[in-house]
Write a structure and sequence with these properties.
single chain; 193 residues; mainly alpha; 2 domains; 9 helices; elongated
Length: 193
Amino acid sequence: MDKTIIIIVAAALVAVAAIFAAVWMYLQKKQTERLHSRFGPEYDRLAEVEGGRRRTEKTLNEREKRVEKFNLFPLSPENRDLFARAWQQAQAGFVDDPRSAVANADRLVTEVMSARGYPMGDFEQRAADISVDHPLVVKNYRVAHEIALRDTGGETSTDDLRTALLHYRMLFEDLLEVQVAESEKQNATAVGA
């Protein structure tokens, strides 16, 4: 009789362990799906850098927790318009002085980030912070920044600088929430009509 009880208890423990393992695997899979869905290409880039799923997901979870503590907010319509005009000036200056236009674009992106409430650490920290809420354009930030760095050494062509400006523009518009601003104007026009 003692052997029967031991066998039943052992079988129950094995069953509980199997259920626990299945639940744990399911939760891990859901976590991976959630992070991959949220971060997209940034998840894949980080997986290459970090060398594995577990380290990648730990890093992304840490980023999320860090950014949750920020007091981020959208720009006021007035500030958005000021930044948009400043961008147009920087972009118009590309014809006469591409290097200055790219430097101004980098400065404007940093100013918008600061105005939105992002802390201004080193580039890698800023890019990591941006990746939480702007994962589809953080790659643009990295590409533009890399070109800007090469430009300080005089290793860029006008086409490289044009590419940097376009990449900065994609992040800038995302940070400025231009699509939101345009839809607000369209709604206001429709309401006023």
